[in-house]
Amino acid sequence: MDATSQPADNDEYILQLISTAGKRLFWRLNGPLEHAISVAPSEYYEPDAVMEPYFRPASADLDTASSWHAVSQESLQTPPVSSVTVRIMCIDSWEQRWADEHRECYDAVFASDRRRLAPRPGDETLDAPLYVAECCGEERPWSQDTRLKVVAGGAFITVHEYVSAVHPWLMGMRDNLLDVLGKIDGQPPWPAETKLAVLYLGPGPLRVGGEDRWAWWHQRPARAEAMAQARQEAASQQQEDPVKPTP
Fold first, then answer.
1. Contact in structure between 173 and 146 (CB atoms under 8 Å)
2. Which of 3, 36, 86, 155 shows its CA 20 to 30 Å from the CA of 61?
């Protein structure tokens, strides 16, 4: 997702960051949205933390209707934004890798019929820059074709508006993601049964990978971890040896 900057009232630009609500999502790409997301207690991974379901189905026994987690109505970004363009890191990286591999391709340089130049798709401006669109029988994987704009229905984009739009979009290209993730590492496509997840929502493009990497991407920063540990030890010590009231 693009880290958009917007002008404030004083003409300064503000970097848009993912909100704490957005960072709490453990978002898997292995099935429908109702079963895809769990919500962590905080933005950081804790081994013993109990996650809550993002979607709760209706229950006749409890006489409750189906519902979405409370974070679904919170802002996706901070400060809130009304629109965002979604990109995917592995797709962007694969286009760059392809361009690098064919930049000095010997066969293409000396056989112009194997190398085709063209502007980016949709660029109809006069004197548009040309790119290698095809080389050695391979078409360039235009990353610009793989973008999605999400627009808020109200004052700002909520977590639910975002995941409701992006989840089916990502699931629709799941096979392509598995293919590209393999190519980036110089390997065959990842197996179809690979469990994928959105590891990082931004700022910048989404990072998609194996869901076993989600915990690593959500580690508590070392300094924050040390401070949290110190507070926990201080609280524990205070419970063991409470301060006696002054007579």
1. yes
2. 36
Q: Nearest-CA neighbor of 155 among 46, 75, 48, 97?
A: 75
**pLDDT tens by residue, 185-218:** 889 999 999 999 999 998 889 999 999 999 999 9
102 neighbors 132 (Cβ within 8 angstroms)? yes
**Residue 87 CB burial class (10 angstroms; 0-12, 13-18, ≥19):** middle
Q: Which element (helix H / strand E) includes 169?
A: helix 159-172
3-state secondary structure at position 103: coil
Residue pLDDT, tens place only, 91-120: 888 888 888 877 777 555 555 566 788 888
> Which of 108-112's residues contact partners 24+ apart within 8 Å by CB, and which partners?
108/132, 108/135, 108/136
- Helix 89-102 and helix 174-184, axial crossing angle in degrees, nearest 10: 50
Name every residue whose Cβ is closer than 8 Å to that of residue 220 and which is 6 or more positions away in sequence: 44, 45, 228
pTM: 0.77
